[in-house]
Design goal:
alpha/beta; Rossmann fold; Transcription Regulator spoIIAA; 4 domains; five-stranded mixed β-barrel
C-alpha cells in the first residue's frame, strides 16, 4: 500500500502557524527503531519539528512487549505526562508498536490512561496522520484504536539520524511461533517487501552518500517465501551488492533452521556482506529447544555454526535465554558447552521473561529466580573468559571499517566497527568521518579494540 494521506497537508498548514514539536520514545528492537525513524519522517513531513522530553506537543511511544519492564517504563512515562494534560496544555499522546496488540495492555490504557489520544497497532502508519488530525483539530476526546494491519506500507517518509549508516526493513512479521515469543501475535504473519522496492530505497540511500546498510526482519532468511515466484534472501543480497556506493551490508536476524548453503556461499564470496553473523541459539539443550519450538537440535546448530566459522574472518553473535521453564542444571550445562565450542564474539543473554499469550507462559516452572540469576552470571563469566582470546586473534591484522565519528568517551579519538562488528577506536580527524578505511588493530581491551588507520 502506497503511503498517501491528505491529512498530512492539513497538518502541515496548521503547523505553519503553531510550530508544534514532537518527541519519540522508542523501546525494543531494531525493527522498532526503524519504525520510529518512519514516524519521525511522517511528523516532519507534516511540519512538526523535533522537541525535547519536557517541551514537546506530540509524544509518540513506540512500544515493545518482549520484556516485562517495557510495560512498566511505558506506564511510568504516561503518568508523568498526565499533569500536562490536566493543565490543558497542547499535548497529544500516541502509543504504537507491539505492546498495543496485547488485550490486557489495551484494556489498561482505556481504563486507567484515558488521556491518551491515539493507540495504533503495528503496520498502521498510513492512518496515523488522520488520527493525529482528529486529535489536534477536531478535539476528539476518546482513544482511537486501530488494530494490526497485514498490508505492506511503502513510500513512507523516513528521517535517518545517521548520515552514513541506514537500516532497511525487508520482511515484516514472523511464522515461527517460538513458545516464549509474543512477536508472531503482535507483528502478524511474514510479509516480504518486493525486491524492486527494497533496491529502490537502497539506491536512493547510496545516492545520498550512505555507505552501510542493515537489512532488518524478524527472520530475514525467510525473505521471499511468500512470493509466488522464486526469489530468496541470497538472491536479494546479490542484487544489493551490485549497487555502487554501498560498501558494507549487514543483516539481522536469521533463523538457524532456515540458514542454507546458498546463503553461506553468498557471504563467503561477497566483498560487501559483513563477516558478522547473528545466529540466535536460545538454548544449547535439544529438549529445551523442542519445548521452545525452535526446530533444530543442539547437534544441528553446532554443525551450522562450525560450517559458518569456515568463512575467513567470520564472527558469530547469538541470543541466549537462561531459566526457561523447568530448565535443569544439566540442560543449562549443554548451553555452556555450545558456548565453549562455538566461541561467540557477542552474546545477548537474558533471563526468561514470561509473556502473556504465549505457550510458555502456561508452563509450570520450578526453577527459582535465584537459580536463573546464578546461571546468567556463570554464562557471562564464561563469555568474558572467551572474548579476549578472540580479540587477540585480530591484533596485527587489517580490517575495513566505516569511520562513524568521535568516540563517545574520548573526543580525541574516532570510532568505527569492523566487518565483524568489533568497535575500534583510533586517531583521525573530521575529514575521515563517513569514509571507509583500512585499520590495523594494535591492541585489544575486552569490549573494544585500538587501531591505526593504514594510509
Amino acid at each position: 500500500m502506497k503511503f498517501v494521506n491528505s491529512y498530512k497537508d492539513k497538518l502541515r498548514k496548521y503547523n505553519k502557524e503553531h510550530n508544534l514539536k514532537y518527541y519519540i520514545d522508542t523501546m525494543g528492537c531494531q525493527m522498532n527503531e526503524n519504525d520510529s525513524l518512519k514516524y519521525a519522517g511522517i511528523l516532519e513531513s507534516m511540519g512538526f519539528v523535533p522537541g525535547g522530553e519536557s517541551d514537546s506537543n506530540v509524544y509518540l511511544f513506540n512500544t515493545c512487549c518482549v520484556r516485562e519492564n517495557a510495560e512498566n517504563t511505558l506506564f511510568g512515562r504516561l503518568g508523568m505526562l498526565k499533569q500536562r494534560k490536566i493543565k490543558n496544555e497542547e499535548v497529544y499522546i500516541a502509543i504504537v508498536g507491539c505492546m498495543t496488540q496485547q488485550k490486557h495492555i489495551l484494556d489498561k490504557i482505556k481504563k486507567s490512561y484515558r488521556f491518551v489520544d491515539i493507540v495504533l497497532g503495528t503496520s498502521c502508519m498510513s492512518i496515523f496522520p488522520e488520527k493525529l488530525y482528529n486529535a489536534i483539530i477536531n478535539g476528539q476526546d476518546k482513544i482511537e484504536y486501530i488494530d494490526v494491519s497485514n498490508t505492506l506500507e511503502e513510500d513512507v517518509p523516513i528521517k535517518y539520524q545517521d548520515k552514513y549508516k541506514a537500516s532497511v526493513s525487508i520482511i515484516y512479521g514472523c511464522n515461527n511461533f517460538c513458545t516464549y515469543c509474543i512477536v508472531p501475535y503482535v507483528r502478524g504473519r511474514e510479509r516480504s517487501r518486493r525486491p524492486e522496492s527494497i533496491l529502490k530505497d537502497i539506491r536512493e540511500l547510496a545516492s545520498n552518500g550512505y555507505k552501510e546498510i542493515m537489512l532488518l526482519g524478524q527472520n530475514v532468511n525467510s525473505y521471499g517465501n511468500d512470493f509466488e515466484e522464486e526469489y530468496t534472501f541470497p538472491m536479494l543480497l546479490k542484487e544489493i551488492e551490485k549497487i555502487d556506493g554501498i560498501e558494507i551490508i549487514r543483516f539481522m536476524s536469521p533463523h538457524p533452521k532456515d540458514f542454507k548453503d546458498d546463503l553461506i556461499e553468498v557471504i563467503r564470496n561477497s566483498k560487501k556482506v559483513a563477516r558478522q553473523i547473528h545466529l540466535p541459539l536460545q538454548s544449547g539443550n535439544t529438549e529445551i529447544l523442542k519445548k521452545m519450538n525452535r526446530k533444530y537440535t543442539k547437534e544441528q546448530y553446532l554443525e551450522l555454526a562450525m560450517k559458518l566459522k569456515q568463512i575467513p574472518d567470520v564472527s558469530l553473535s547469538t541470543d541466549i535465554i537462561v531459566g526457561f521453564p523447568n530448565e535443569t542444571e544439566e540442560q543449562f550445562q549443554d548451553t555452556l558447552d555450545v558456548v565453549k565450542k562455538v566461541e561467540f564474539d557477542q552474546i545477548y543473554m537474558f533471563i526468561y521473561s514470561k509473556r502473556n499469550g504465549t505457550v510458555a507462559a502456561k508452563m509450570e516452572d520450578k526453577v527459582t529466580y535465584e537459580e536463573k540469576v546464578d546461571r546468567l552470571e556463570r554464562l557471562k563469566k564464561l563469555y568474558e573468559e572467551i572474548l579476549p582470546k578472540l580479540n587477540e586473534k585480530m591484533v596485527g591484522k587489517e580490517y575495513k571499517l566505516l569511520v562513524e565519528g568521535k568516540s563517545k568517551t574520548n573526543d580525541k579519538l574516532y570510532t568505527g566497527r569492523t566487518s565483524q562488528n568489533k568497535v575500534v577506536v583510533f586517531e583521525a580527524d573530521d575529514t575521515y568521518i563517513g569514509k571507509v578505511v583500512n585499520i590495523k588493530i594494535d591492541s585489544q581491551h575486552l569490549w573494544y579494540l585500538k587501531g591505526t588507520i593504514v594510509k
